[in-house]
TrEMBL record:
<dbReference type="InterPro" id="IPR053027">
    <property type="entry name" value="AGGF1"/>
</dbReference>
<feature type="domain" description="FHA">
    <location>
        <begin position="75"/>
        <end position="127"/>
    </location>
</feature>
<feature type="region of interest" description="Disordered">
    <location>
        <begin position="1"/>
        <end position="42"/>
    </location>
</feature>
<dbReference type="InterPro" id="IPR008984">
    <property type="entry name" value="SMAD_FHA_dom_sf"/>
</dbReference>
<feature type="compositionally biased region" description="Basic and acidic residues">
    <location>
        <begin position="193"/>
        <end position="206"/>
    </location>
</feature>
<feature type="region of interest" description="Disordered">
    <location>
        <begin position="185"/>
        <end position="224"/>
    </location>
</feature>
<protein>
    <recommendedName>
        <fullName>FHA domain-containing protein</fullName>
    </recommendedName>
</protein>
<feature type="compositionally biased region" description="Polar residues">
    <location>
        <begin position="30"/>
        <end position="42"/>
    </location>
</feature>
<feature type="compositionally biased region" description="Polar residues">
    <location>
        <begin position="1"/>
        <end position="12"/>
    </location>
</feature>
<dbReference type="InterPro" id="IPR000253">
    <property type="entry name" value="FHA_dom"/>
</dbReference>
<dbReference type="Pfam" id="PF00498">
    <property type="entry name" value="FHA"/>
</dbReference>
Length: 247
C-alpha cells in the first residue's frame, strides 16, 4: 500500500525547483520562493550510469523493457511528448494518471547522487526500496516535491508504471539492465520520433489522397460515359449509332 506521507528529504536547494505539471504549483505558498536554476551539463564519464528496467507498465509497448540514460544528467517523465527541439530526453507514458510533465530524474553533482523530483503532478510519484510495496509518495497532489535520493534497485512508480532503478558506480551495466543485443527493439525511446519539418503532415495528406482515389470509381465511370457520349456526338451526323433492344 502506498503512503501519502513524504519520506526524509535532503536539505533544500534552489536549484531543485522545476516548473511544469498540469496545474500551477503551490511552491509559491512556501516561504522563500526561488526561481529555477538550470542544471549544468556533466560530462558523461563523471557520474554513475542510471538505467530503468520495467517491472510493471501497461502503457509501454511490451517489447520495450529498458530505458538507457547513459550520457544524460537529466531525464523527464510525462504524458506529453517533448516540445519540438527539446534537448532533454523524456520518457513518455500515455497514462491519464501521469501529468503532462510529471517528474524529473537527475544527477545531483553537488551531492553526487541520482535523485528524482515530482514536478507537481496530480497523482504523485512514489519511491520504495527493493521489493517493499509500501512506497513513499514524494509530495501532495499538485505540489512539487523535494528531491528524493535514488538507490540501486529502488522502485520508482508513476501512474501504472513501475521502474526498477539500476545505478552502477563502475559504469558497467549488469545482466538485468543490459540491452538484448537486438538493436533498439527493447529500448524505451527517450525522444519523440514525430517529425517537426512538416513531412509527416505531407505524408498524411498523400495517404488521404490515395485513400480518396479508391472511392472515385462511380465518379470516374460517369466521366468516362460523358466522354464517350461527347465523342459519339462528334461523329458525322451527330447521332448515336442504332442499337437493338437486346443491346
Amino acid at each position: 500500500m502506498r503512503s501519502d506521507v513524504s519520506g526524509n528529504s535532503p536539505t533544500y536547494h534552489p536549484s531543485y525547483e522545476f516548473p511544469g505539471g498540469d496545474e500551477i504549483h503551490e511552491i509559491s505558498s512556501r516561504p522563500g520562493t526561488h526561481t529555477h536554476t538550470e542544471l549544468t551539463p556533466t560530462p558523461a564519464n563523471d557520474f554513475p550510469i542510471c538505467r530503468l528496467v520495467i517491472q510493471e507498465g501497461r502503457f509501454i509497448a511490451k517489447k520495450c523493457r529498458l530505458a538507457v540514460i547513459d550520457g544524460y544528467s537529466e531525464v523527464q517523465f510525462g504524458r506529453d511528448a517533448s516540445p519540438p527541439g527539446a534537448g532533454t530526453p523524456r520518457i513518455r507514458l500515455k497514462d491519464m494518471e501521469v501529468s503532462k510533465l510529471h517528474a524529473t530524474l537527475f544527477w545531483d553533482a553537488e551531492r553526487a547522487e541520482w535523485a528524482v523530483v515530482d514536478m507537481g503532478s496530480k497523482h504523485g510519484t512514489f519511491v520504495g526500496s527493493g521489493e517493499d510495496t509500501n512506497r513513499v509518495r514524494l509530495s501532495a497532489s499538485r505540489v512539487a516535491s523535494m528531491p528524493k535520493r535514488l538507490k540501486h534497485l529502488d522502485r520508482l512508480s508513476l501512474g501504472g508504471t513501475t521502474f526498477v532503478v539500476h545505478i552502477h558506480e563502475n559504469r558497467l551495466p549488469c545482466s538485468e539492465c543490459s540491452a538484448s543485443g537486438q538493436g533498439s527493439d527493447d529500448l524505451i525511446p527517450l525522444f519523440s520520433h514525430q517529425r517537426d519539418d512538416g513531412t509527416a503532415a505531407q505524408d498524411e495528406r498523400s495517404r488521404k489522397r490515395r485513400a480518396d482515389s479508391s472511392n472515385d470509381a462511380p465518379r470516374n465511370a460517369k466521366r468516362a460515359l460523358a466522354s464517350l457520349k461527347h465523342r459519339l456526338l462528334r461523329r458525322p451526323g451527330g447521332v448515336f449509332p442504332a442499337v437493338s433492344p437486346h443491346d
